[in-house]
Every structure is written in C-alpha cells, then in structure tokens.
Amino acid sequence: MNTTAVPTTSTVAFTAPAAEQELIAGLPSDFRWGVATSAYQIEGAVDVDGRTPSIWDTFCRVRGAIDNGDTGDVACEHYTRMPADVALIKDLSMDTYRFSVSWPRVQPHGKGPASPAGLAFYDRLVDELLAQSIDPWVTLYHWDLPQELEDAGGWPVRDTAYRFADYSMLVFDALSDRVNTWTTLNEPWCSAMLGYAYGVHAPGRKEYPAAVAAVHHLLLGHGLATERMREAAPRAIDIGITLNAATAYPASDAQPDLEAARRADGMGARLYLDPLAHGRYPADVIADLAAEGVEIPVQQGDLATISAPIDVLGVNYYFSQKFTGFDENGRTVGDNGLPISRTLPLDKPRTAMDWEIVPEGLTDLLVRISRDYPGLPMVVTENGAAFDDTPDASGYVVDDGRTAYFSSHLAAVATAINQGADIRGYLAWSLLDNFEWAYGYEKRFGIVRVDYDTQTRTPKQSALYLRDLIQQLRTN
Fold first, then answer.
1. What's the rounded Cα separation, in Å, for the pair 190 and 268?
2. Every domain of the chain and the residues it spans
3. What is the distance between the alpha carbons of residues 232 and 179, in angstroms, rounded to a whole number?
4. Which among 270, 412, 449, 451 has the fewest CB atoms less than 10 Å away?
5. Domain 18-475 sits in which CATH superfamily?
6. Which regions of 83-235 does DSSP assign to beta strands (E)?
7. Residue 356 in 3-state DSSP?
8. Residues 156, 147: Cα–Cα separation, whole Å
9. Annotated catalytic sites, by residue?
10. Measuring CA to CA, which residue among 11, 118, 21 is closest to residue 391?
11. Which catalytic residues are annotated (predicted)?
C-alpha cells in the first residue's frame, strides 16, 4: 500500500515578503539543503533485532512524564518504512539527511560488540541515501542512552564518556567508508539540564551538581570520540558537534539585567563553546557555579581532549529570550542569596510550543559565534516550528505559520552570511511529524504530516515551499 502522498504540482499559496525573498535568493550556490530527524522520535521497533531499552523507553513508562502517556514504541515506523522515507526526501529535492543512530540498537546494553542486525539497518539507510544522491549526515547521540548505562550512573559518571567513544567507533568502523560528515552529540545542554537538573526529559533526575558533571562528561565523550574517529578515518572527513543555542538579550542596560543575560549566555552557550573552541571553561561561569556550591569535575588532560579540532559546528535554533535580573518586586537577590534571573516576553508571535518567533536572534547568534569563535564553519542543523496543523480531507496541511517561519529564518541566515558568518547549509526540523519527547505526539514539527493511524505521509505546504525554493535556487 502506498503510504506517501506527494503532490506533483505545487499547491503553495504562501508568498514570502519581498525583502526575505531577495535575501534568500543570495544564498551561496553550494549551500547544503536538508532535513533532520532522530532515531527514537521516528524509528519505532523498540524491541526488534536485539535492541535494548534506552532511558527514553524507561521514562515513557513513568506516570505523568509524557503527555497522553505516549511512547516511542511505534512512532513513525521508520525502521520498516525507511526506503519510502528516503524516496520522500529525494522528492523534496533535499541533498542532505541528518539522522541519528540508536545506541541501544547498535550496541545493546551499552557495552560489548555491535549488534549485526542493528548496524545493518543504518548500513541499508546509508546505501539508500547514496543511491538517491543524498548526503548522509550521522549524529551518533540524540539522547537515547542505553538504560543499563544510566543504571550505572549515566552521564554524571565519567565512565559513560568512555563507553560513548567505544560505541562511536562501532558505528564509525561500519559506515565511515561512505559517510563524510559525523556529529558526535546533539544538544548536550538538553541531555544534561533537561535530563539531570530539571527532570523533564529522560532520565528525569533533578540533581543540579549531577547535571553539571553530565555537561563535562558529554563534552569529554565528544572529544574522546572525535580523537578516535580522526585517527581511524580512512580519508578526509568532517567531524563536529551540534549545540542548541540562542541569543540572550538583556531587558535593559541596567547592570542586573546585563548580568542576568550574561549568566544565561554562559550556561546556555559559552559553557559548551569555550571548552570546544578555546580549551577552557569560562571563568565567570565557573564562578557562578561555585556560588551555588557546584564544580565542574575536570581532570588533567580533559580540556585538551574536549578541544580536539572539529570541522563543522551544528547550530540548532528555535527561539531567543530576554532576561532580567529583577524580580516582580524589584529585588535583585533571591531568598537563596543568589542573583535573580528570569525571562520576560519579547512580545513576538508564538508557536504551538509557546516559543516566541525571533529570527533576528538567529542572525545575532550566528554572527556572534563567527566573531567569538572564528574559523569554525557552521551549518544550521535544526530549525523549525510546531503549529496546530489542520489537514484537509486528503491530509494536506496549509501551514502558513510554519512556512513563514522557514522564510524568515532563511532570510536571517542570509543576513548573517552577508555580515561575514561562515554558514554552509540549512537543515529543516523535522522531516516528519514525530514523537516530540515529553509532549508526545501532540506537537507537530514535521514538514510532512504523519497520520499516526495509517502512517500515511503527506507533505505540507512548508515542504513544497522548501522544495520549490531549492529547485529555483539551483536553476538560477
């Protein structure tokens, strides 16, 4: 049964503002265009071919952890529908597909040899992509830590970094003859802070010192894997890491507001970028953590490993925020003796995630990274928006909000390039509606609608906008 419905002619009614069109038309001719997904969000087949549970399989069983009690057990059935999904990427004129590898599928139990069946899936995926002239971009870790490693302490424990490097080499040895671009981690901030400090992502712990330790061990795992992959590479390859970052705007020029923005930028961006690019943690962030009684568990040689040279920085961007150092009563210090930090609205339109739409924040972020961390090529590896889609009788979605989001953010990328930022490509999040972590299946980011009852895929207006835009730019 055909479960993919791709319009052969555009039904796009959206027209980008002329200023955005002009900026986008100036994007480089060799610009990379693609889509991104992650294993747990789309694959399903969680107990097939020897795969063992990840922390997300466990977290989904915690009462109240996931909206509607949803799980990734079935998701988009990508594990069995992969060839058709690759054909869909081709139909949308994308030249790059960024996907993640499921650690517990490839290395059950988080240690020991690779599972031949688990590796075989990604082997077939890479071959399918290459047969369609689509460049495979591998992400080695997108949050699905094997549960047995979490039982042994998880990312707050140093040994997990070494286990990650071992797992990375299992994948690298199998695919490096055909894959040219490798990302070690996706959004270590989310893994560490949402998973270990705030408890809203797997494994659901609320232990701030453990979260800070997880930050360091995630970065150490990245460095260890990078060194080993570089040494074993059969030819020149690109290795990088993907960070979710944003621009932290101060609410005013008042010192408490400036300090609140500095602290947010320190914990959200510089805590990762500085050790990666400069081989050191920011002194002001170390001081901020010390004020809370927390230390980063650095051992000798760690920072040299973490700062192993990379070839590309993936930047995931969704929104930016404004920060103030005053509480509602005008105080600058809380009852805990620590400085106040809280967000204020930027008074921008919002997505279904209640995230403000701030394309200028992406421009500011990319230009800032280019300025403060020169010589580091960037690709926007995730950018997109959830909206409350309403399909017609055929399943087609006119998603003006999402389409406008893409247009405004592509214009923001073009503006950053015009201001000197080195940006090599743009990957939309996401190819498919999928399991959106703690939000279950209610929030839809896909440019392709998935009917979860039938698994039918139907490209939305935003998908056709991107397809037609890419085709137009390639012919100019």
1. 10
2. 18-475
3. 13
4. 451
5. Glycosidases (3.20.20.80)
6. 96-100, 135-141, 181-186
7. strand
8. 14
9. 382
10. 11
11. 382 (nucleophile)
